[in-house]
Design a protein that fits this description.
Elements lengths: L3 H7 L9 H10 L1 E5 L4 E3 L7 E7 L2 E5 L2 E6 L4 E2 L1 H5 L7 E4 L3 E7 H10 L1 H14 L12
Length: about 140
């Protein structure tokens, strides 16, 4: 039987192309962290140093106190500041008690370097949101 976090990652569209060994490596490099309802996950101006994946609960992304999006189990966030090597431009807040898988930057970049389908997916996200971004996600340092 697969590890419960591996099963959770299989439900994340960005990581569905990965095999069990790769998913276990991600689990080994990540942390599961818990935020109470109303807790701030990150704020504008803080470094983009991890990819976040919602395991349980709900997360709100806001800009200038206006809601931009809601994220639910299986959704990931934080990739833009991570891949563009910038600080966060928006705030992430736990709407309800939430458990997140937090994948540090170096481990996330290692996944991108070793799996073209995952790298292509995140490259597409970056270029859809920021067409002018001169980023090759496999070459981000």
């Amino acid at each position: 039987m697969a590890h419960s976090l591996v099963q959770s990652l299989r439900g994340v569209p960005e990581f569905s192309p990965l095999d069990e060994h790769s998913l276990l490596a991600i689990v080994g490099e990540s942390m599961n962290l818990f935020w109470r309802a109303g807790g701030t996950i990150f704020e504008p101006g803080t470094p983009g140093d991890a990819l976040y994946i919602v395991l349980t609960g709900e997360v709100m992304i806001s800009e200038r106190d206006a809601e931009v999006s809601r994220l639910f189990p299986g959704d990931s966030f934080g990739e833009m500041s991570l891949l563009l090597n910038t600080t966060h431009s928006r705030k992430a807040t736990a709407v309800g008690d939430s458990e997140l898988l937090v994948l540090p930057k170096e481990a996330f970049l290692a996944v991108l370097r070793t799996n073209k389908r995952v790298a292509d997916h995140f490259d597409s996200i970056v270029h859809t949101r920021r067409p002018d971004a001169p980023v090759d996600v496999t070459g981000v340092a």
